[in-house]
Automatic annotation (TrEMBL):
Coiled-coil region list: none
Family according to the record: Belongs to the trans-sulfuration enzymes family.
Organism whose genome encodes this protein: Alteromonas arenosi
GO molecular function: transaminase activity
Protein name (record): Aminotransferase class I/II-fold pyridoxal phosphate-dependent enzyme
Alphabetical list of Gene3D superfamilies matching this protein: Aspartate Aminotransferase, domain 1, Type I PLP-dependent aspartate aminotransferase-like (Major domain)
Amino acid sequence: MSNATLSNAKILSPKRNSTQAESIPELVTEQLEHFGIKPDSAYGQALANAAEHLYQSQADVMQLWDITQQTLNNIDQKEKVAYFNAKKFLSFQIAKILDSLQNPFRATYQSLSGQDTTAGKSHYPLFDNVTALFSATPVVVRTATYIYACTEWVDDAFQGKESTHQIYSRLLNPTNISLANAIVDMEAGPFAADYLAWNFNSGMAAIDAMLSNVLTHGDVLVVSRNVYGGVFQLLHDYFSRANRMDIQLVWFDGYSAEEFEACFKQAQQDHAERLANGKSLHVYIESPCNPHGLVLDVPGIAKIAHQHDALVMLDSTLATPVLAQPLQHPDKQARPDYVVHSYTKDICGTGATTAGVVIGEAYRMFQSKGDCVNGWDWSRTMFWDVYYIKGAFLDSEKAFDVLTGMKTLPQRMMSKVINTLVFTQFLQSHEAFRVNSSAIASHKNAAISQATMQHGWPCSLFTVDMESAGLDRDTFVRFFDALEPAFGHQVSIGQTNTIILCPALTSHSELDRAEQEKAQIFMTTMRIAMGTDNVKALIAHFVNAARLHIDPVVNGFSEQFMSAEEIERLYMDTAMSVSQQYFSDMPSMQELLG
C-alpha cells in the first residue's frame, strides 16, 4: 500500500491524529477498539468489513480527484459529461449506503431511550437528513449547532482543519456555504479556485469586517469621494476617530487612474511620518459609486496601488458580477484584493432580505490554525481575525433568499440596462434636467465606463437634478411626491421596481451641506434606481406628474421632453441593441460541442 493511500484512508479514522496503524486492516482494528466492539463477534466482523471498504473507498475517491485534476483540461466535452454523471451516481450510491443505516441506527437509539418520556425528548435526526442531499435547491439548515463524530475530529474542526465538520451556525452553515461558493463562482469565474467568500448579515457588516481585518491603528486610507453614506459615517465617526482606530482618511475626488496616482502620491507625502513609523497605506473605492452610478478605473487604480504594496478594497455592489468582473482581469495586479457586495440590492433583487459578502484570495480569508501562506499568518485571515469573533454571520433563511434571487440576476440586469439607457436619454432631452450617469455618451465618465464595464453598460443607479429650472421648494416637493406609485419612494435600491429618493434628505443626510456639494448632491437631486418595470409607463407617469405640478408654475415645461414617437423609437432601438449584446455573450455552438 502506498503512503498516499494510507494517508487518505487515515482521514476517516476516529484516531486520525494519533493512530499508529500502518495499513487499512490496522485502521479497522483500531476503530473497533475505540468504540469497544469485539472483533470476533458477528457485529464486529460485519462492522470491520464495512469499515475496511470505507477506508479503501476514501483512498479510491481521492485517487479519482487526483485523476480529475490531471485530465479535466485535456478531455473533450463528451468525456466531461461522462465524468460528471459517473461522479453524480457515485454520490447517490454513497448516500444510499447512509440511508440504509437509518433503520438499524434508529432501532439502536430507541433501545437506548427505553421508556424515557422526558418532555422535549425527540428522535435522533442524523440519518433523516441524508435524503436532503438530493434537494434540487440548497437546503435551509435551521440549526444552531451540530453533532460531532469524535474527539479528534471535532478538535480538528476547532483548528480549522475539518471543513465538512461544522460546529456552530454562527461560524459555518451549509446554506451559507452554498451561497459563498455561488458568489465566488459568479464573481471570479475561471479564477474561482483562488478565492473564498464570507457572508454577513448586511452589506455594512461585510464592509465593517473587511475594514477591521485590513486596517490597523493609525493606518492611512485613500477613499473614493462618492461612497455610500453609511460607509462615510462608519469611516468618519468610528475608524478615523483618534480614540478609536485613528485612521487617517484621504478623500479621492477623481475617477481615472491618473487622478488616483496624483492623490496617492500626495497621501504618501502628506502622511510620510505615519508611514515611516510602520503604518500602512491602503485603498477603499466604490465603483460604480452611490449615488451617481459613476465608474472608477478599477484596474488602473489597483495596478498603481499594488506597485506600493497597498491593498485595494472595492465595493462592487452596483456593478454586480453581470456588469463588471474585477476579479477576472487577466492581469492579477489589476484586480482588487477584496470585493464586497451588498446582497440586499440587485443580487438578491427582491428587497426581502439584508445581507452582504466579502470575497478575497483564499489565503487571506482562511487558513488552518498554525499555517502561513504567502507570508500571511493564519491569525490575520478574515475568518479567525473577524468572522470567528464578531458574529455578524448570515443565517440560512437569508442565504436561501439570496441564492434564489441570483438565479435571475443576468436577465434582470439586462432589463435594467435597457431601462437605464432609455430613461436617462429621455431626461437628457429636457434642458432643465442635468443627468449624472455614464449612460449619457457625452458624460465625462462615459469613457471609463466603456473601457471597464461589460459592453460599456451603465449602472442602473444614477442621479438627476433640476437646479437650473429654478423651482421653489414647494413645487419641487409636490412634483417629487406625485411620482408615486410608478416610482417607489423607498430608501434601498436594486429591487425589481424603480425607486427614487432625494439623497440630501435620506441616504446622504449624514454629510453636511459642504460635503454634499462636494459630492454633487443638491436639494433637487433625485437618485433613481431603475427596476425591471415598463420604462414607457414610468416615462408617462413622470411627464404627467410634471404636467400636474410644474406646468402651472413654468408654462410649457412638460412639452420640452422628447415626443412619444421619439420615445418609442428610442426604446425599440435600445432594447434590440442591448439584447443582441447580451445574447452574443453566450458560448457558440462550436464551443459547447467542444
